[in-house]
Design a protein that fits this description.
about 220 residues; Penicillin-binding protein 2a (Domain 2); flat; 2 domains
Length: about 220
């Protein structure tokens, strides 16, 4: 009969060798990742990144008390955005002027939203939320002449059968700087459309909805 002490010593020795073996494999793998393949992973980290793009929520509709007659709904409209870093400095002024002209706004409005300190950004900046389909078609047909200019579907508010209820329903508009400072911690963004008066303002948090997010893997050029 084997001695319990000898048997225990043999088991302990085996476990020690096993732990040492597994530890050696782990150390070699760690060395490979941190040293041998360091440059490879560093290149991947600087080449690719995750970009988060907002998907605006459709604003809630407003009906009469019986939920039969629509009072405020949404109709198709588009937002036009500029990705500053995609526009070369040599043509930046020309692109700003062409975009302002086709949108029917002043070039100063674009410069206000995209000051010089934003020129390096690979994040889209909204220029307008009220472009119509015909305008988007024109930009799309001449896309090569509008580098860095993009568009997204963004429903526009439409009021129906309002009559004397107009002052009660209120209206919506782009969020102001002071409003944003007060609401940024409530999930609002600088390019949001918010209620400015009446029911639209009183119940804005409910009507606004919750924006979605699209995560994209992009290269250094966005």
């Amino acid at each position: 009969m084997k001695s319990p002490i000898i048997e225990a010593t043999g088991t302990t020795r085996f476990l020690g060798i096993l732990v040492l073996f597994l530890g050696s494999i782990f150390s070699l793998r760690l060395f490979s990742l941190q040293v041998t393949r360091h440059d490879e992973f560093k290149a991947k980290a600087t080449t690719y990144a995750i970009q988060s793009v907002k998907i605006p929520a459709a604003r809630g509709e407003i009906f009469d008390r019986n939920a039969d007659i629509p009072l405020a709904t949404n109709e198709e409209a588009f937002s036009v955005e500029i990705l500053p870093a995609e526009i070369k400095s040599a043509v930046r002024d020309a692109i700003f002027e062409k975009t302002a002209a086709i949108l029917g706004i002043s070039v100063q409005e674009i410069r206000r939203k995209i000051p010089e300190k934003y020129y390096h950004l690979y994040q889209p900046i909204t220029i307008t939320n009220a472009a119509n389909y015909a305008t988007i078609v024109k930009i799309a047909e001449q896309k090569d002449e509008y580098p860095g200019v993009y568009w997204n579907s963004r429903p526009k508010r439409k009021y129906l059968n309002v009559g004397s209820l107009g002052h009660l329903l209120g209206y919506v508009g782009e969020i102001g700087r002071d409003e944003y400072k007060l609401r940024f911690n409530q999930g609002y963004s600088e390019d949001d459309t918010v209620g400015k008066a009446g029911i639209e303002r009183q119940y804005d948090v409910l009507l606004k909805g919750k924006d979605g997010r699209l995560l994209k893997t992009v290269d250094v050029k966005g």
